């Protein structure tokens, strides 16, 4: 009996050892196919659909997977996290087939080499023996060309559909130093990932500070159709009186559905920031001189307290949230009398708390006088004035109170587990 069991195990071991994926391919029981839709040459930035078929004359055990599909100057998007399963009759026999589909977007013209694709395969062989391993497909290449009408353009994208929109916040008829406007630009494209969308190039202007938020980039699929979106937000803060032009943009779009070059444009914005009355600066200097000694003593105490707070909180700085760090930066800028930087930081905090670029609309009445003094100091209209830590914290508390209250269903309610 032991001899019979040993003979069966030995026979099975020899059989399993002899059956390999290479032998299955050689015997015509396993087939791999690497397909590219369309004909060469392909066009720059336009999608190229590629698929890998694994066909087996029985059925799969643990299935298949494809790895190593990456290359320089090539954006690769997998159409699904799973293979598509179907069957096909070959020579009167039903074969199981798994297909992996990809879409690639070439970013450079010329002969673009695709890497060797590695495929993991696990199949159920004769006598229910599982055979698995990896096979490599031969490298392929794509011949990429570019339309003549696109060669001179600095940036452009290729897609069947493209949309562009913008939104301004903080617009008004009359501006003054310290005011801010927010510009939000949103782009959407179909049959292309969001990384193919071109970012708007925004630069600061003399007399206008620019703050760029991190762009929001997202890809989604609707019934198999890929859609990419990109949202860029810019905050312009007027630092000096004058006449300014915030730039317009021209986006170039190659319409693949009609093979036509199209443009989408955003207009520029003219801003005229008026100067304050001629005598306002002298009046503020006089008022600041009267309180000079009191402000000097209070500033010294505030600086000592700020140093102590800085030493205590330095160990926990990495754990704090973005707004807490910005609040600490704002107070530190007040200590260093960097009032222009402090005002810009205050606008950033206002946008984080209430998504509003206007401080006057969200600052409470008891802090409006401090805000006005900070704006004047940022413009050097008061050489001897200062904003204390107490006043700075008053501004911060006023900003925090502008936060939108949480909905009742989002609030956390704590119940005592052992009352009494």
Describe the structure.
The protein is an alpha+beta fold and 420 residues long. The chain has three domains: 24-146, Immunoglobulin-like; 154-274, Immunoglobulin-like, CATH 2.60.40; 280-400, no CATH class. The protein contains nine helices and 22 strands. It has helices spanning 2-18, 21-26, 280-290, 292-313, 322-335, 339-354, 359-362, 365-378, 389-400, and strands at residues 30-36, 42-43, 48-56, 59-67, 74-78, 84-90, 93-106, 110-113, 118-124, 130-136, 141-145, 157-159, 162-169, 175-176, 180-190, 208-212, 216-222, 225-238, 242-246, 249-255, 260-266, 269-274. Strand 17 (216-222) and strand 18 (225-238) form a beta hairpin. Helix 5 (322-335) packs antiparallel against helix 6 (339-354) and helix 6 packs across helix 8 (365-378).
Count of folded domains = 3
CATH class call of the largest domain? Mainly Beta
Cα distance, first to last residue? Answer: 73 Å
Structural class: alpha+beta
Question: Which runs of at least 5 residues are low in confidence (pLDDT < 50)?
Answer: 1-16, 407-411
CATH architectural group of the largest domain: Sandwich
Binned, the helix content reads 25-40%
- CATH fold name of the largest domain: Immunoglobulin-like
* Nearest-integer average pLDDT: 82
- Please tally the helical runs, counting DSSP H or I stretches of 4 or more residues: 9
Overall shape? elongated
Q: Which strand-content bin applies to the residues?
A: 35-45%
Counted beta strands:
22
Rg, please? 33 Å
Main pleated-sheet profile: 5 strands, antiparallel
